[in-house]
Specification:
Largest sheet: 7 strands, antiparallel
Helix content: under 10%
Shape: globular
Low-confidence stretches: 1-19, 605-609
Distance between the termini: 63 Å
Structural class: mainly beta
Strand content: over 45%
Length: 681
């Protein structure tokens, strides 16, 4: 959890001034951050305008073009702002800047009328764009400032096109900035897509400085219900009340509850001040409504380590904290997080263990050791059921594999030589799996690249984490921790710390959303899996079916059976099992389906709705003895097309049905007639 300071390098274009001009020159800087569809006031150009006149002069207009822009219609409006003689480097200039004018861009050069002035000295103009809601992902926005016109002159720029341009993605939204909600800083992002499709983000609210526990830190939660374009006001999950009484480093996972999420974090003592007798506590909270509300923090420290732990070794451990970001809910229902452990007070070495629960968080256990000298780590489940762990380690990322559900690990971790990263937290999640019907296995990993905390990059693996051949930098400047999620439309989200403006760890937390196609620069795309629903009518011509056909994964399919004259609907059968007895049958499709819609004749037997009775067993097997419950004078058995297949006299049982199918049993005692339907397998 060391902080490595970096400096953002700015590229400027210096422009010469004209002789006899009241302009001393203009310096342009083009912003290169990603933009997103529907974003408003996205900064494109910063113009530092030196005015040498002794008195202020009125601004009339600027001449611009968007010649480097992929599609002019991607830009709905251009706006020009001023902050007069004050330069802003914290991303907040729009809040106090003055709007001078706006215009709708056109092809070629166009003029934007202004209502403002220039004062003696360096004046700062900010040129922004409003991005269209339907702007295409991967398109670029570029801008040139050709001239500035005042009451006295038109100053033409000799080099109006600085290097750099903005690329459009699906969403880019700043959630929290230093100073928001009276907090000095925000750090430690964790994000997950809830079962209802909403996005849930946890963040450390570091109120007085940007350092770790035992500082006074809150954990807060924001939600988005529109794919990350807008976010709710934060709610407090755990509120710090002073030094040694704060909380931090949250990790999120799905629980086994219907709309459940579970989060863990630590609090109180810091990692390096914790002891067995006064441990840094571990906490758990749960949500049962997709992250809208959360339970009060529950201490789970005693399950892991410290004086109240029953394990004779772990009760002497000194500290434990979770690798923030994503936890793991395995296919077997096991919930897992990776903890970094101080086993003793004699050195600063950390050891990685998995903290896991098999009862949805009621109790917790600890695995065998996974690394010596590791730090924050993440786990994901491989297609064959093994567990893959990625471990923070400066120089190259470490990894380890468990073949028994995370209980034990290889003695020594291995090294990913294609992920060269500083000592920094990252995230690891599964994107697609052939086990779920996807076209291929894909894993995603996010982490800064290089020797410093900058250039957060997303890697893609197609061989279950053996290699990471595909990558793309998402934040090409000072950036650190990140967390990944998959949205319902199969696009990718990342919640990341970034410090574009100062490069001094004054982090803002920003959410990005983009497609696999964009991430891989068109080399790979998510292929929607198509499943087939086929229905056979039994008997043939007994009815009609609507709703069958081809469907994408997780679509809702609704089949409707309509009986023809002389028949009534009986049930839906798949693999000899009755799946529904309703004529309208709905389900979420995750595989190919082959169903039989069974109908029964109403002309050969009495109406089934009156005088029914039960038989045992039901369903029955071929050649099985079927008990009627009492003795009847006469028993007749009809098949699904209404043909009589057998008749008995004076019996309380039936045997000898040799063909699987749907049958109607008609039992008669005097004037008492009873009917029963039965499936024979």
């Amino acid at each position: 959890m060391k902080k490595i300071l970096t400096l953002v390098l700015l590229t400027f274009v210096s422009l010469a001034s004209f002789a006899q001009s009241e302009f001393g020159g203009v310096i342009l800087k083009q912003e290169t951050q990603l933009t997103a569809r529907a974003n408003v006031d996205e900064l494109i150009l910063k113009a530092s305008v030196q005015y040498k006149g002794t008195e202020s002069v009125a601004l009339q207009s600027v001449k611009l073009n968007l010649n480097g822009t992929t599609n002019i219609s991607d830009v709905e409006e251009v706006r020009v702002y001023s902050t007069n003689l004050k330069d802003y480097t914290n991303g907040r200039f729009m809040e106090t800047a003055t709007l001078l004018g706006s215009c709708v861009p056109t092809e070629g050069d166009f003029e934007c009328k202004l209502d403002g002035s220039l004062s003696k000295g360096i004046n700062y103009l900010w040129l922004t764009v409003n991005v269209a809601e339907d702007a295409a992902e991967g398109n670029f926005v570029d801008m040139s400032l050709l001239s500035i016109t005042t009451d006295n002159e038109t100053f033409e720029l000799k080099s109006p096109s600085p290097a750099g341009r903005r690329e459009i993605i699906l969403a880019r939204t700043t959630l929290l900035r230093p100073g928001d909600y009276n907090s000095s800083n925000y750090r430690i992002p964790a994000i997950i897509t809830a079962k209802d499709g909403s996005i849930v983000a946890f963040t450390d609210k570091r109120k007085y400085n940007n350092t770790d526990l035992p500082e006074d830190i809150d954990i807060i939660c924001n939600r988005s219900t529109d794919g990350g374009h807008t976010w709710s006001e934060p709610i407090t999950i755990a509120q710090g009340t002073g030094r040694f009484q704060g909380y931090g480093d949250a990790a999120l996972v799905h629980s086994k509850d219907e709309n459940g999420l579970l989060a863990v974090f630590v609090g109180g003592q810091g990692l390096w001040t914790s002891t067995p007798s006064v441990p840094q506590n571990s906490y758990m909270v749960k949500s049962y409504d997709n992250g809208q509300t959360w339970t009060e923090p529950e201490v789970i420290t005693h399950f892991i380590y410290g004086k109240d732990c029953t394990d004779p070794t772990r009760k002497n451990w000194y500290a434990s904290f979770f690798g923030s970001g994503n936890g793991l809910l395995t296919s077997t229902g096991r919930i897992m997080f990776v903890a970094a452990i101080r086993e003793s007070g004699n050195n600063n070495t950390l050891y990685n263990y998995v903290v896991y629960s098999d009862d949805n968080g009621e109790t917790w256990n600890v695995s065998g050791r996974a690394s010596v000298g590791g730090d924050e780590a993440k786990v994901t489940e491989l297609a064959d059921g093994r567990i893959l762990m990625s471990i923070r380690h400066g120089g190259n990322r470490w990894y380890n594999i468990s073949s028994d559900g995370g209980l034990t690990w290889q003695y020594n971790p291995s090294t990913w030589y294609d992920i060269a990263a500083p000592a920094c937290n990252g995230d690891l999640i599964r994107y697609t799996s052939v086990n779920n019907g996807d076209d291929k296995n894909r894993l995603l990993h996010s982490v800064p690249v290089g020797t410093e905390r900058k250039n957060v990059t997303i890697f893609v693996s197609y061989d279950e984490g053996q290699t990471w051949p595909t990558s793309r930098c998402i934040v090409p400047y000072s950036s650190a921790y990140s967390s990944l999620c998959i949205l319902p439309d199969n696009t990718i989200g990342i919640y990341v710390e970034e410090d574009f403006y100062t490069g001094k760890d004054n982090y803002s937390t920003v959410f990005y959303n983009f497609s696999l196609e964009w991430l891989t620069k068109g080399a790979d795309g998510f292929e929607d899996v198509v499943y087939e629903v086929a229905v056979t009518v039994n008997p043939e011509n007994a009815g009609t079916i609507t709703g069958a056909g081809s469907f994408e994964k997780d679509e809702t399919v609704t089949l409707v059976a309509t009986a023809n004259e002389g028949y009534k609907f009986l049930n839906w059968i798949e693999n000899d099992e009755v799946v529904s007895e309703k004529s309208e049958y709905s389900f979420t499709i995750t595989s190919d389906r082959e169903l039989v819609a069974n109908f029964v004749s109403t002309e050969s037997v009495d109406e089934y709705s009156a005088n029914t009775f039960n038989v045992f067993p039901s369903p029955a097997s071929v050649n099985a003895e079927i008990n009627l419950g009492m003795t009847y004078d006469r028993v007749e058995v009809y098949n699904s097309v209404g043909a009589k297949v057998v008749e008995y006299a004076d019996t309380d049982k039936i045997e000898g049905i040799v063909t699987a199918g749907i049958y109607v049993i008609k039992a008669v005692n005097g004037n008492d007639v009873r009917n029963c339907r039965i499936i024979v397998r």
